[in-house]
Amino acid sequence: MDCALWCPALEWRGVRFFVSVLVAFGHAVARLRRDRGWSIDRLAEAAGVSRKTVINVENAHKGVRLTTAHALATALDVPLAELVVALDPIEKTDGDG
């Protein structure tokens, strides 16, 4: 049995896409950044992290440290919980489509 998380923002035409928590977190960061009209460089500067870090977070290339997640949330002016609250854990079994 493998456990996945789905993010409602990744629901398309009624189909839920199962993604890892890192993918969903990165998607939330990217969505909030774009909603503000910010570039990757602007978010990186505001959060005090490198451009490469923001790219890695948004693309789920690497795990994210709690301190980095907090810095990104602070820069985006949202509680850290907002970046993960949309995640709804669902247990996915082999029999699920």
Explain the overall architecture:
The chain is α+β, with helices and mostly antiparallel strands and 97 residues long. The protein has five helices and three strands. The chain has helices spanning 21-35, 40-47, 51-58, 66-75, 80-84, and strands at residues 2-6, 18-19, 88-92. Strands 2-1-3 form a three-stranded antiparallel beta sheet. Residues 1-6 and 89-97 have low confidence and may be disordered.
Low-confidence stretches at least 5 residues in length (pLDDT < 50)?
1-6, 89-97
Largest sheet: 3 strands, antiparallel
What kind of oligomer do you see? single chain
Mean pLDDT level: 79
**Proportion of residues in helical segments:** 40-55%
- In sequence order, what are the helices and strands, one letter per element? EEHHHHHE
Total helical elements: 5
Q: Let me know the number of strands.
A: 3
Strand order of the largest sheet: 2-1-3
Main attributes of the structure:
97 residues, alpha+beta, disordered N terminus, three-stranded antiparallel β-sheet, 5 helices
Sequence-ordered SSE layout with sheet pairings:
Elements: E1 2-6, E2 18-19, H1 21-35, H2 40-47, H3 51-58, H4 66-75, H5 80-84, E3 88-92
Antiparallel strand pairs: 1-2, 1-3
